[in-house]
């Protein structure tokens, strides 16, 4: 079996950046606050204010550490700290004081990204990149001062830092992002750290990077995730490569601002990763994508409470820096996703964690067997469409009219194909799907849809999120995102779509989580009117809605300062999630 070489793709900033201003949380709202309120999310994680690393479960509490700029809504103003929020249910979050601040020579110019690890004896540890007094990147460690404190409010940085100094052959600004540590069978801990060797210069748009690890670590850029070959259960990061275990090597690539991964096996004796699909090669841009949309720098952790692996990713803003400053915040985390290995042993499936169902309130839909003819657009009424959870299953009666593609090169770039074949372009089988965050006159809308192509005797199912009509505002990034759903549509003849709508965030999951697309949207109409939700078909062939359900979602408590709780929002401190009976 082929083994992955050390020279692969561009190493990334492994940052979760959520921004906001330094003004008081309790000041009277301004006109700008009112205008931006409609775009702030209701159930996605973001700090109450300023610019947004490592998630962790410990002693009954969930912790999310994130890069935080206490000085500005922009990343490059002042030195970065680590924000810290806690939750009992992954929905409601309480903001604590910062966990790490740039107060020592080894991090004097900023506490950058890293990861959290639970050491033997239930001792929480943080590994992070510090920008030292010489402005070089070094790797540091910090420990919980009182591990029995369920909130882990205080952290100590030992004087012996850095634990990994800058290697002699690595530039001072190209050594960062330590992964969650894992324990080998030899009793030694490993981490993965991204770096760029001085002998490997950029070639065109690609930067060749080498991974370096401490204490016999394996090759790769963070992260390293073990997965069970069968079932949906998660595994602790230190699970070894015995039978029934696969590992996932994930890279965040700055050149493309995308996250790529490969499933394979990890030999901790040789510290080598062997991919399940070696034909994809060493260029990670040919690997599988975690999300085909607007996400970057994903992080995951093993949730011991529910025996699952949970994934987050950063979805930054896509309008202007001036808009960031005006809002006083920037960037969100995707909604937490459960992640497990598909039966083919090659791809990951992702799905919103089940806790989101406790936010469901009013339900609409329950359509079964509704026929959508060519050009059909039907409104889904009865839910607040700017804050909703929508599940729909489409049945395709026939694939005879699927558009033919003779040139296979057209299938190599699904995002480009989505741009050429948008929702407004009539097709054969598709486009069909949802129009979300839509104005009443449909001048603004975001289209999430499927389209079927045929190359020779094989069918390819394309999933797109088309933002070209999402806003009439100038200066907003409005691409079409897309990816192919890895499933046999000829065999199934049905395709499911689940879309989470949260004001400026639209997350969609196609084919049971085989393809995911996250988008940021900024429609103008939300300032003065409500949004609408539609199901549509713009293909020449009819499709059927086998099932459609939509729910209003309640607003979670996310990093809101309440009374004299020192930044603790009481609902977030419940050690077990509250269930609401519908």
Structure characterization notes:
The chain is mainly β. The chain folds into two domains: 40-200 and 207-352, Tachylectin-2, Chain A, CATH 2.115.10.20; 358-554, Jelly Rolls, CATH 2.60.120.560. It has four helices and 40 strands. The strands form nine sheets. Strands 27, 28, 30, 36, 37, 38 and 40 form a seven-stranded antiparallel β-sheet that branches. Strands 29, 31, 32, 33, 34, 35 and 39 form a seven-stranded mixed β-sheet that branches. Strands 16, 17, 18, 19 and 20 form a five-stranded antiparallel β-sheet that branches. A hairpin with a 5-residue loop joins strand 12 (182-183) and strand 13. Residues 44-198, 244-352 form the Glycosyl hydrolase family 32 N-terminal domain.
Topology of this structure?
Elements: E1 19-20, H1 31-37, E2 50-51, E3 55-58, E4 61-68, E5 81-87, E6 94-95, E7 111-119, E8 123-131, E9 137-144, E10 155-156, E11 175-176, E12 182-183, E13 189-190, E14 193-195, E15 210-212, E16 224-228, E17 245-253, E18 258-267, E19 272-275, E20 288-289, E21 296-303, E22 308-315, H2 321-327, E23 329-330, E24 332-333, E25 337-341, E26 348-352, E27 360-367, E28 370-372, E29 376-379, E30 387-395, E31 403-404, H3 414-420, E32 432-438, E33 446-455, E34 458-466, E35 480-485, H4 489-492, E36 494-502, E37 505-510, E38 515-520, E39 532-537, E40 543-553
Parallel strand pairs: 2-23, 31-33
Antiparallel strand pairs: 1-23, 3-4, 4-5, 5-6, 7-8, 8-9, 9-10, 11-14, 12-13, 14-15, 16-17, 17-18, 18-19, 18-20, 21-22, 22-24, 22-25, 25-26, 27-40, 28-40, 29-39, 30-36, 30-40, 32-33, 32-39, 33-34, 34-35, 36-37, 37-38
